[in-house]
From TrEMBL, chain A:
Subunit: Heterodimer of a catalytic subunit (MsrP) and a heme-binding subunit (MsrQ).
GO CC list: plasma membrane
Domain of life from the UniProt record: Bacteria
Annotated transmembrane regions: 14-32, 52-71, 83-101, 113-133, 154-170, 176-193
Compartments where located: Cell membrane; Membrane
Name this polypeptide is given: Protein-methionine-sulfoxide reductase heme-binding subunit MsrQ
UniProt keyword list: Cell membrane, Electron transport, Flavoprotein, FMN, Heme, Iron, Membrane, Metal-binding, Transmembrane, Transmembrane helix, Transport
Swiss-Prot/TrEMBL GO biological process terms: protein repair
MF (Gene Ontology): electron transfer activity; FMN binding; heme binding; metal ion binding; oxidoreductase activity, acting on diphenols and related substances as donors
Domain Ferric oxidoreductase: residue ranges: 52-163
From TrEMBL, chain B:
Family that this chain belongs to: Belongs to the MsrP family.
Organism of this sequence: Palleronia sediminis
The keyword Signal is annotated on this UniProt entry: yes
Annotated catalysed reactions: L-methionyl-[protein] + a quinone + H2O = L-methionyl-(S)-S-oxide-[protein] + a quinol; L-methionyl-[protein] + a quinone + H2O = L-methionyl-(R)-S-oxide-[protein] + a quinol
EC number: 1.8.5.-
The Oxidoreductase molybdopterin-binding domain, residue ranges: 80-235
Protein name per UniProt: Protein-methionine-sulfoxide reductase catalytic subunit MsrP
Length: 202, 299
């Protein structure tokens, strides 16, 4: 057995319920840190940012699943759905903290969504995640059929780019870290371009 | 000299026993006229208690040490602040290097408990020690033609790791109009809670202009230049549409990133409510400086 195959055996042994539970516990853990004063003296912004970063990182992992398999043979495909749904969950938590703890007012939240470009872009990412989350189950996959299902899920690329652009724009200055994420996302999307083009031509 | 502006709010006022007195004094400090309305009175109730030393020293914007809020607290210990001198030059009678220790020895150090409102829509209440900037400028004797004051922060990338990255045009520059600089509310702060100024807060000496957004209150000053032209300030150069030269706290002028009509007082925890932001951060006594000016244009 190659090293990659050994990793795959191990990965497949992890039941997906464990991925869901462990993944869902991270925001709970963050929330506890924030409540108990372990996220600094201004926990609302700290929690908001921690959840945004967690969502971004998870989206990058989801994007990396296919190239990772192609280049190393390591396959996380059996957990891709769980990772995708977790990313959606993290964005929901991020949005909830923004709405309920940060802005605290639906009217003002709406004003921010239409007025502030970095919020508009983040919100677009969230809205595009909704159809993906709704179709991340076997029934939807059967109903749509693999071709249409895959077409819907190419939205992932758009969402990741929106998320990374949002991250760059949130900063007041050109910071390195968000630019690294944006570059990573663009590179991972670029690895799909030949295949996407072929599919579009077919 | 000094004590031209009486702030009778002192640390002893924050004890609950003195709550009533405290409120009366704050109303005085914030300008009685603006506080008659119910909403404004509610806002002042929120402003009573100074933040803790820990809050004031662990949540800072000081990009010279990094862009994270805790970067200054983590990295500022590298900064050496002795010896320290401030060059005062430009349109003054006696330009020169003034040693920080000599300046402090000559000045009448008083306590000023001020609200600090950051452009990012958070705020604190800070018990500063310091002296009026006007008294420092008087040492060098501003010439009548001086119309602006330009301030500069130390440039020392070996000790200020944030300066290794060109995220801003270092060194940090800020500026005031001369009448703003001479206003008795404008101080050079040398300490917090009777401790010498912590490094992450701008040791050994920093500006505090309480009616303007925090980025105007430049830290770790090494140079003060009196000029007849408006200084090109750092954040204004970085994003002119976002950060104006005046940067007066103004709930009616929205910022492209943050709404400015409300703010969050640091220290309230995860469920703290937003409070109303006051015009000039509640320091209505400066309104006269801007008579006839369109503050939406000159934001
Ligand atoms: C695909 C969806 C999204 C992703 C991947 C994402 C990611 C991020 C990241 C990485 C950060 C910065 C974290 C840091 O600096 O460490 C952030 C900050 C933020 N995001 Fe999002 N976000 C998304 C959607 C949203 C939505 C829907 C909203 C609100 C409508 C939102 C509002 C914010 C706010 C207010 C901040 C913090 C701004 C500040 O600190 O001033 N984001 N987000």
């Amino acid at each position: 057995m190659t090293a990659a195959q050994r990793v795959n055996v191990w990965v497949r042994k992890v039941p997906s319920w464990a991925v869901y539970i462990l993944g869902a516990m991270i925001p709970v853990w963050y929330f506890w840190l924030a409540v108990s004063g372990q996220m600094g003296v201004e926990p609302i912004n700290a929690l908001e940012r921690a959840l945004g970063l967690l969502a971004m990182q998870t989206l990058v992992v989801v994007l990396a699943v296919t190239p990772l398999r192609r280049w190393t043979g390591i396959s996380l495909v059996s957990h891709r759905r769980a990772l995708g749904l977790l990313a959606f969950f993290y964005v929901c938590c991020h949005l909830a903290v923004w709405l309920l703890l940060d802005v605290q007012d639906p009217g003002r939240a709406w004003a921010d969504i239409v007025k502030r470009p970095y919020i508009t872009i983040g919100m677009a990412g969230f809205v595009l995640l909704l159809p993906l989350a709704a179709t991340s189950n076997d029934r939807a996959l059967r109903k749509l059929g693999p071709v249409r299902w895959r077409r819907v899920h190419t939205l992932t690329y758009v969402i990741c780019v929106l998320g990374a652009v949002h991250y760059v724009m949130v900063q007041k200055v050109w910071e390195i870290e968000p630019l690294v994420y944006l570059a990573l996302v663009l590179a991972l999307v670029a690895t799909r371009l030949p295949r996407l083009r072929r599919r579009a031509a077919a | 000299m000094a004590r031209r502006w009486t702030n009778d709010l002192t640390l002893s006022d924050v004890t609950p026993k003195q709550a009533y007195l405290n409120r009366r004094q704050l109303i005085g400090a914030a300008g009685a006229m603006s506080l008659i309305g119910g909403a404004a009175a509610a806002a002042t109730d929120e402003t009573l208690e100074p933040n803790t030393f820990e809050e004031i020293t662990s949540y800072n914007n000081f990009y010279e040490f990094g862009t994270g809020k805790t970067d200054p607290a983590d990295h500022a210990h590298q900064l050496t602040i002795a010896p320290w001198s401030i060059r005062i030059d430009g349109l003054v009678d006696t330009p020169g290097d003034y040693a920080a220790d000599d300046i402090i020895a000559q000045m009448d150090i008083e306590e000023r408990i001020y609200r600090l409102r950051c452009v990012e829509a958070w705020s604190m209440v800070i018990p500063w020690q310091g002296f009026e900037l006007a008294d420092l400028l008087a040492l060098a004797g501003p010439k009548p033609e001086a119309r602006f004051v330009e301030f500069q922060t130390l440039l020392r990338p070996e000790e200020m790791p944030g300066q290794k990255f060109p995220i801003l045009d270092w060194p940090y520059i800020e500026g005031l109009r001369i009448d703003e600089a001479m206003h008795p509310l404008t101080i050079m702060a040398t300490g917090i809670y009777d401790e010498p100024m912590p490094k992450q807060n701008g040791a050994p000496m920093r500006l505090v202009v309480p009616w303007k957004y925090g980025f105007k209150s430049i830290k770790s000053i090494v140079r003060i230049t009196l000029t007849d032209t408006q200084p090109r300030t750092t954040w204004n150069k970085a994003a002119a549409a976002e950060y104006g030269f005046y940067a007066n706290v103004n709930p009616n002028v929205s910022h492209p990133r943050w709404r400015q009509d409300t703010e969050r007082r640091v220290g309230g925890g995860l469920f703290s409510s937003r409070i109303d932001t006051l015009m000039f951060n509640g320091y209505d006594e400066v309104a006269g400086l801007y008579d006839g000016m369109d503050l939406e244009q000159n934001f």
